[in-house]
Amino acid sequence: MQYRGGFGGGMNMNALMNQARKMQEQMQKAQEELNEAEVVGKAGGEMVVITMSGKGEIKSVKLNKAAVDPDDVEMLEDLIIVAIKDAAQKAEQLKNEKMGGMAGMGGLM
């Protein structure tokens, strides 16, 4: 059997490169959208509200004055953690929606 080089099955190298370029552009666009997107996490009936980017960067923390009780700091700490987890879960969900179609790209992500 004679070796002809290249990819098996007669795969067109130009088509493969174009597909890779297109996937890279889609990945870049999705990452930009995630960076610009915002999600909101809440706890205690909006006593604590966390705004986070789609990439998981905390943008703002809002506390309702009623949540600030000097005699019960632990409750406020717990509410902050719950709001951060809520926002992080929403950011992860958004990331999965934006990047889900590209999950099979392996090392390109």
Task: Describe the overall structure.
- The protein is α+β, with helices and mostly antiparallel strands.
- The chain has one domain: Nucleoid-associated protein YbaB-like domain (Ybab, Chain: A), CATH 3.30.1310.
- It is built from two helices and three strands; from the N terminus they run αβββα.
- It has helices at 13-36, 73-99; strands at 38-43, 48-53, 58-63.
- Strands 1-2-3 form a three-stranded antiparallel beta sheet.
- The protein is rod-shaped.
- The model is unreliable at 105-109 (pLDDT under 50).
CATH architecture: 2-Layer Sandwich
CATH superfamily: Nucleoid-associated protein YbaB-like domain
CATH classification class? Alpha Beta
How many helices? The count is 2
| CATH fold-type name | Ybab, Chain: A
Count of distinct strands:
3
Shape: rod-shaped
Rg over C-alpha atoms, rounded to the nearest angstrom: 22 Å
* Through-space gap between termini: 38 Å
The overall pLDDT, averaged over residues, is: 85
Strand order of the largest sheet: 1-2-3
Largest pleated sheet? 3 strands, antiparallel
Helix percent reads 40-55%
Unreliable stretches, pLDDT < 50, 5 or more residues? 105-109
Structural domain count: 1
Task: Provide the structure class.
Answer: alpha+beta
- Tell me the β content: 15-25%
Report the order of strands and helices.
HEEEH
